[in-house]
Request: fold
Amino acid sequence: MTLNCVIIDDEPLAADLLSSYARKTPFLNLIGAYNNAVEAMKGIRENDVHLVFLDIQMPDLGGIELAKLLPKDTKVVFTTAFSQYAIDSYKVNTLDYLLKPISYEEFVRAADKALEWFSQLNPNSSKLYNKDRFIYVKSDYKMVQIKFDDIIYIEGVKDYVKIFTDDGQKPIMSLMNMKKIEESLPHGEFLRTHRSYIVHMPKVKLVDKFHIAFVDKMIPISDTYKDEIQNYFDSHTLS
Reply:
């Protein structure tokens, strides 16, 4: 899912910095950056804007006043040097309140809140990922694109998942649980074989009763999932 966003800040350097953050965040589509809230309203009205990164103290029209004029489904992340407006900010469509100077990590964390909010609003949003045949995950403060076709298997390790791919790169680690990533993958193509493993079934070349074998890993098949795994192989076996 891609979120259309705008940046509104009367300080050109601040607007440029946040714009650079938006451009390198894969799931954000920057519609425009504005130094004036009145000018920004035209861009917002002409586009389907999901998310606004909005300064508070601006001439002519302040950020909180502008937020009250936005469509109800447009969410706001306030970006300001002043902490005293935090309480007032949550009376409008606020997802987060970032104090300057803003790091990219803080920016992405706020953007991710928006992505989660819109994903919950649209329960079919995961199908958009499936249609595109890739997902994005956070790893080492970066957003990493992973193509479904590159995934071999996924291993759950405490609060993290390790995503093993066939592109020769080291596994990608991301802070999330197995249930969340399982819901992002096309079911029937990716199957749970064990509480700690999800396997990309078209990648499987060798299997026995208790394990799926890869070159450098034996993936266990637990009793909980063995029937579904067996059904998969039955449906793909010539008799």
About this structure: The mean pLDDT is 86. The CA atoms of residues 136 and 144 lie 5 Å apart. The longest strand covers residues 28-34.
